[in-house]
Amino acid sequence: MTTHHHHHDALGHHQCVRLVPIFNHLEDDQMNEIMQVAQSRQYKKGEMIYMAGDESDALYIVSSGKIRIYRLSESGKEQLVRILTPGEFTGELALFRESIHTNYAEAMSNTQVCMITRADLQEFLLKYPSISLKLLQEFSNRLDQSETQTTRFATEKVDTRIAYFLSDLMEDEGGSMIVDLPMTKKDMASYLGTTPETISRKLADFEDAGYIHQISNRKIEILDLDEMLMV
Question: Which UniProt keyword terms apply here (predicted)?
Answer without folding.
Answer: DNA-binding, Transcription, Transcription regulation
